[in-house]
Specification:
Layout lengths: L8 E2 L6 E2 L1 H6 L3 E7 L9 E8 L2 E8 L41 H26 L1
Antiparallel strand pairs: 1-2, 3-4, 4-5
Length: 130
């Protein structure tokens, strides 16, 4: 997996700068969900929360910023709103997996893997600290 440490996103509250590596690896940055634009993928976002004792602030990053980390083919068509679409992308809180042939499905699967990975690391840390 390609990692970079170029700081590109700033927390809107505490003004800490983050790289994609920080977003993917820090347990202080919690992935929340995603929203999509049915016509323009540049207007589709992952939502995160910067969780620290002095900061509990949500922020967004365009899903396309994570394209280098997608390990599967990304379809060119947007299936959002079509009859076969299951509508998962209509709600940021919907964290069900999408199996559609849609541009957004690989980004959604990536987000779910990220959420799962961070939850597993937290569980492991709690186990080790016991």
């Amino acid at each position: 997996m390609i990692m970079d440490n170029i700081k590109f996103k700033q927390c809107p509250k505490c003004e800490t700068w983050f790289s994609r590596e920080d977003i993917l690896e820090s347990l202080n940055i919690i992935p929340l969900g995603m929203t999509v634009d049915e016509e323009d993928s540049t207007l589709s976002f992952f939502y995160f929360n910067h969780k620290r004792p002095t900061c509990d602030t949500p922020f967004t990053i365009p899903v396309r910023r994570f394209e280098p980390f997608i390990t599967e083919p990304i379809p060119s068509k947007i299936n959002f709103g079509n009859p076969s679409c299951e509508g998962h992308c209509t709600s940021m809180e919907d964290l069900m997996v999408c199996q559609q042939e849609c541009l957004y499905a690989p980004f959604r699967r990536f987000l779910l893997k990220l959420i799962d990975m961070k939850n597993n690391i937290k569980t492991l840390k709690r186990f080790i600290e016991q």
